[in-house]
From TrEMBL:
<keyword id="KW-0812">Transmembrane</keyword>
<feature type="region of interest" description="Disordered">
    <location>
        <begin position="257"/>
        <end position="278"/>
    </location>
</feature>
<protein>
    <recommendedName>
        <fullName>Tetratricopeptide repeat protein</fullName>
    </recommendedName>
</protein>
<dbReference type="InterPro" id="IPR011990">
    <property type="entry name" value="TPR-like_helical_dom_sf"/>
</dbReference>
<feature type="compositionally biased region" description="Basic and acidic residues">
    <location>
        <begin position="257"/>
        <end position="272"/>
    </location>
</feature>
<feature type="transmembrane region" description="Helical">
    <location>
        <begin position="6"/>
        <end position="24"/>
    </location>
</feature>
<keyword id="KW-1133">Transmembrane helix</keyword>
<keyword id="KW-0472">Membrane</keyword>
């Protein structure tokens, strides 16, 4: 009887363990799917939903990783305040061993969010934490540092840092649209006349800028919003000019077609008298 009871309890325990493992496996699949979507770009909202589902069923370092994914998705969609609120409590927690590099990256992302919000003192603190964790300067921390300098009005220092680091940023694939925006913004503030062509070319390549980014900057960083609006207006003017040129060409082709049609409808001229006599 005792053996039967023991085997029954063991069976229940094994079933419970299998259920937990299956549940964790399913949640971890949600996490991996969310990572894939985040890497592809353009699916941040769906990725965030998957990260949240994963976080509800994961524990320990894996739950920390899922919540970090939620914060990154919010940051990518311009929710800097929400992203900072998610990321900052995670700074004292550990990530899975395979994500040790992310423990350096996350304080940098938090610093960027805080810089965009104007919280430059807190941003500098977490940027310093990121540098300490890595043990030196790394290219993926240039962006938050540049954002802090620009936010504090040190545009010359920000521009010099980007110019000094640009070859390394290119080599490491860190020249993202945001750092290109900050570079053009700093040039616009430091010496707009000298850098006019470069600034306009950069704005044209980046615009139209996302409306959520414009909305955020109008509220939290109006000077940057004005600069970004210049890019959107440039694109709008170019588009208007393109449409006007197309309309002019269409009118010319239509006029030519009408002339050809009119010439084809004219009756042939009768043969003239050849001047011969009977």
């Amino acid at each position: 009887m005792g053996n039967v009871l023991f085997m029954s309890m063991l069976g229940v325990l094994l079933c419970a363990v299998m259920w937990v493992l299956l549940r964790l496996g399913r949640r971890w699949r949600y996490y991996n799917q969310a990572c894939d979507l985040l890497g592809e770009g353009g699916e941040n909202q769906r990725a965030e939903a998957l990260f949240r589902r994963a976080a509800r069923g994961l524990y320990g370092t894996h739950r920390t990783a899922a919540l970090a994914g939620v914060g990154l998705c919010r940051m990518q969609r311009g929710g800097y305040a929400e992203a900072a609120a998610v990321l900052e409590p995670l700074m004292a927690q550990r990530l899975p061993r395979a994500m040790r590099l992310d423990e350096v990256v996350l304080p940098g992302h938090l610093a960027l969010c805080l810089a965009m919000l104007g919280e430059t003192s807190r941003a500098r603190h977490w940027l310093g934490v990121a540098h300490e964790r890595f043990g030196g300067r790394v290219t993926f921390l240039v962006l938050p540092e540049v954002a802090i300098l620009c936010r504090e009005g040190h545009l010359g220092a920000a521009l010099k840092m980007m110019e000094d680091c640009w070859p390394l940023l290119l080599a490491d694939g860190r020249v993202c649209s945001r750092i290109r925006l900050f570079r053009a913004f700093a040039q616009w503030k430091v010496d707009p006349e000298r850098n006019t062509d470069f600034i306009f070319m950069t704005l044209l390549s980046l615009a139209p800028l996302p409306e959520w980014e414009m909305t955020f900057c109008r509220e939290h960083w109006p000077v940057l919003a004005d600069f970004m609006q210049m890019g959107n207006e440039l694109v709008a003017r170019q588009e208007a000019q393109r449409l006007q040129r197309e309309a002019e060409w269409a009118a010319r082709y239509a006029e030519r077609d009408r002339e050809l049609a009119a010439s084809n409808r004219e009756p042939p001229k009768p043969d003239g008298d050849d001047g011969s006599s009977g």
